[in-house]
Amino acid sequence: MIGFCLFVINSDYFEKLTIKEKKCIINSSKKSNIFQRTLAINEDDILIKKIKAEGIKISNLSEDNLNQFKKLTQVFHEQYFQEFPQMKEFI
Questions:
Q1: Which of 6, 23, 55, 80 is most buried by its number of CB atoms within 10 A?
Q2: CB 46 within 8 A of CB 14
Q3: Are residues 49 and 77 in the same domain?
Q4: Rounded distance, CA 33 to CA 5, Å?
Q5: Within this chain, do residues 52 and 12 fall inside the same structural domain, yes or no?
Q6: Who contacts 72 (Cβ-Cβ below 8 Å, separation ≥6)?
Q7: Number of separate domains in the chain
Q8: Which domain holds residue 79?
Q9: What is the mean pLDDT of residues 49-68?
Q10: DSSP secondary structure, 17-65, as one string
Q11: Are 69 and 49 in a shared domain?
């Protein structure tokens, strides 16, 4: 279960920053995302146990079902990544 960190900055403010400042913010946000993903991966087992303890059934897709799901959602992903190409690395 991976969430994501959303970084918001006023575009007028951001555009006034120096290239060095912009790179610093962008690189720091990437590092923060990597850290957040690492935390999420490390906590998966704990969260799954808590979910199951609440009586919620968790199903895993077979390889065939996963491939079918990917095929059925391919058009959506293509459209989404055209609008948000930077998100492709997170999917």
A1: 80
A2: no
A3: no
A4: 6
A5: yes
A6: none
A7: 2
A8: 59-91
A9: 94
A10: S-HHHHHHHHHHHHHHHHHHHHHHHHHHHHHHHHHHHTT-------HHH
A11: no
Residues 76 and 48 in one domain: no
Task: Report yes or no: 81 and 87 within 8 Å, Cβ to Cβ.
Answer: yes
Specify whether 15 is located in the same domain as 54: yes
Nearest partner of 7 among 80, 86, 76, 78, judged by Cα? 86
CB 2 within 8 A of CB 41: yes
* 50, 80: one domain: no
- The Cβ of residue 17 has, within 10 Å, a number of other Cβ atoms equal to 13
Kindly state the average pLDDT of the residues 74-78.
91
Same domain, 43 and 77: no
Q: Residue type for 35, please?
A: F
The structure tokens listed for 68 are: 């079918």
Q: Are 55 and 31 in contact (CB under 8 A)?
A: no
Q: What pLDDT is stored for residue 12 in this prediction?
A: 95
Other CB atoms within 10 Å distance of the CB of residue 22? 14
Q: Indicate yes or no: pTM above 0.85.
A: no
